[in-house]
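Problem statement: downstream parser choked on a complex file, so we are re-checking the raw output for the NAP run. The parser issue turned out to be on our end (a line-ending mismatch), but while we're here, posting the original submission so the record is complete.
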Amino acid sequence: MAQQADVRKYDEVERAFDAAAARFGGIDILINNAGVGVFTPVAHMSVDQWHDVIDTNLTGVFYCCRAVLPHMKKRGGGWIINISSLAGKNAFPEAAAYCASKSGLNAFSEALMQEVRHDGIRVAYVMPGSVNTNFGGHQTAGAEWKLSPDDVAEVVVDLLGHPSRSLPSRVEIRPAKPPISGKR
Ligand SMILES: NC(=O)c1ccc[n+]([C@@H]2O[C@H](COP(=O)([O-])OP(=O)(O)OC[C@H]3O[C@@H](n4cnc5c(N)ncnc54)[C@H](OP(=O)(O)O)[C@@H]3O)[C@@H](O)[C@H]2O)c1
């Protein structure tokens, strides 16, 4: 079943999860993957661009978790996996909003993990390095050194398969052989 929702709009998010819970009898897994990247110096960043990044990457995750938690508590457990970024711990120029959103997401994930672990809800965040998608307007041609989206998906599937006594709560994944700077 597909349900469309803009994660920046709480009423749409809540409606989508309520529909999924009604259709399947509950919700077991939430993967927060939606994200946007705007890469420009702070001096040139518009107020709308700032809000777009923070509202999608950080507030959107709060909205989805907030809407899903009552369903998971009713089921007696679940998994929430947030797709963050290595940019959340390694800030770089022209990415202030993006780095701030992912750094905030890391802290949000850690706090939530501690809040709900005794309800049987496991929270983890995955921090990929460069992934070969069109994210932020990046070109995919000539970027085969980057991670594939499948590599990140494999981490998510592995997390879901962990025994219920264990909680791998933070995973970093990066390209094995990035170009050496100056030798691209
Ligand atoms: N690519 C990288 O190098 C990289 C590295 C580290 C982390 N990440 C993270 O990985 C995640 C996926 O990115 P990607 O590389 O796969 O980029 P992508 O191809 O641009 O995918 C982004 C996804 O987010 C969805 N989205 C954006 N705004 C949304 C909104 N307001 N409501 C609902 N959905 C929304 C998009 O849906 P539509 O297509 O419908 O717009 C799209 O499916 C992001 O959180 C990103 O920060 C990416």
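For whoever reads this later: The chain is about 40% helix and 10% strand.
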